[in-house]
Each structure stands twice: as structure tokens, then as C-alpha cells.
Amino acid sequence: MSFTDVDVQSALKNLIDPNTKKDFVSGKSVKNIKVSGSDVALDISLGYPAKSVWDEIRAMVEAQLKSALPGVGKISVSVSSKVVPHAVQRGVKLVEGVKNIIAVASGKGGVGKSTTAVNLALALAAEGARVGMLDADIYGPSQPTMLGISGQPESLDGKSMQPMLSHGLQAMSIGFLINDIDTPMVWRGPMVTQALEQLLHQTNWDNLDYLVVDLPPGTGDVQLTLAQKVPVTGAVIVTTPQDIALLDARKGLKMFEKVGIKIVGVVENMSTHICSNCGHEEHIFGAGGGAKMCADYNTEFLGGLPLDIRIREQADSGTPTVVADPDGKLAKVYKQMARRIAVKIADMAQDHSAAFPKIVVQNT
Description:
With 364 residues, this protein is of the alpha/beta class.
């Protein structure tokens, strides 16, 4: 029995991608259908990194074609991911070598923002994306320690810097440029914002799908510079369930809304405490605050993370949870969050500026 391309498309019209909740055909994931007699070959191209679920998606598509096309012969399904640039604030150009920028922010300090940022970056990399980490916390850079990086970045031309490499991430931080880790950055606001711009634009980022920016807490100079001059695809807000933390997180969320940066979602850190002796789980900081905040502001609750001693120990030792225990329960939560962030970004409007030719007017 022979089939046509239309038969194959019809067979996949009702198959839902478990990550996007859309069918593969309307989501434009089905590509290069080739029918040879009763044999069918096709590509599934996902707009988000999802290496850990490629096999699952391949098996789903094969099973659907077998049940929907009686008499089908050999089925060959190739699954891959392709991340493209998405729209940012109006009037802000994309950074060379970077497709999408994800800002990770918090209203106040001490909520585990930097730990969350580095684990989300590592989770995106584990799912097959090319990822960078920019430590924008000029006053308190923590990414060099969390990524276990020492030394200073190279400059090949005396004008720009090569990113430092660790655990598959490209990284840049003011912490790499100061000789003594104990030296405080006693700088006024304009110096801090200039430093952020230089770290972003004078680093030779190498073809990144995502650059995760670990912001300092609050809604001050750095956040404002980011909103006005850095092309941010979306922001992730990190909070804890405490009322005080949520109060400040709401301010951070509203600030991004005011400056036209899309909120991807909210991560609730320290949702529960797990006793290291008996394993008992308790909501010591309160329960449901992050989810309620998301309901109030019509944004997505990306999930909760426990207050677990391993997360702290692994980050302090320079091997964060996603690389220290890649198959563990905690790494799985980070990967689910990262995949959800990537899916939401893939749903945003694409940036087509690179497709237009640059017009130069000159006298002859």
C-alpha cells in the first residue's frame, strides 16, 4: 500500500507534543516527509532544546503512524531541535553571537537566584542548547565560584574577551577580572551599568542559543540598563514562599512589564524543607505563595524547588546540581523548568532583523 504526504500529515494532526501542548503539524514541527511505496521517512524539528525527550517523541510519532496508516512499511523518524532568535524590546538590537537572552531576576537577595540561574543554564545545555552565563551581579559576583572557574579571560585582539568555559557553558563575570575575590566593587551606578554593557558586548560569544543573565537583586540601575539597552527575550523571576520575598518579587515582575520585557514565569525556591536525617518535608516558609502571585499577574508558575542541602553544597563546590547529579530528582526538576522556559520562548514572535539586507547609502 502506498501513501502520500497528505496522508502522513493527516495521521499526525492529532498527535500532541507533550511539551508545547500543540499538535506537531500546526506547530510546524513536521518537515521533509518522504514516502517511498509503503515506507515513510520524516523529520521532527522542535523549536526548543529537548535532547532528553527526543527518543520519547520519536517513539510517539512512530506509534501514531503505525496505528493511523494500516499496512505502513518501514518508518524512519529523525528528531532534532533548532533554536531561532525571538523578538525583544522595540529599538534594541540583538547581541552578536547570541540568539536569545533570558534574564533571571529577584526582588530581594537571599532567595537562591544565582543558584537557580546557573542550574537552569546547565539544564538548557544538557538538553542540547548552546548556552552562555553572564554574571551581571557586579557587586556580588558568584558565578565564578558556582562554575568552579579560576583565572582570567584571554583577549586575542586587545579589545574583546574570550568567554571562560565550564561544564559546557560559556561564561563571563566581573569576578574573572578582579585579582582578589575579597575586593569589594565600590562603584557608583554609572560605572556598574557601563561594566555590564562591556561584559555583554565585548565578550566573543560563540553562536549561543541562550544567554542566561544572572541579575543583581532589586529594581535599580542594572535592571534599568538591561531593559533599555540589552535585548532581553524574556525574564524569569525567582522568589521564596515568604510574604516579604513575594512582595519584592511582585515589584520585580511589574518593573519588567513596565519596560516591555516579557515575563516567562516564576520559580519558587525553598518551597519545602527536606530533613536530611529523616526525609520529612515541611513548608517552613509558607505554601502556595508563588502560584498565587502567578495567578494574580496571569503568568506561569514554572515550579518549586526544595530547600535541600545538596543544592547548596554542589553550587559551593563548583559543580551545580544539574552536573553533579544529572539523573537525580533535583536535576530533573531543573530540566523540566528549563524545557518549559525554552518552549515559552519558542512560542514568542520571531526576530527577523537578520533576514533583511543592510542598506548602505553613499555618494559615488
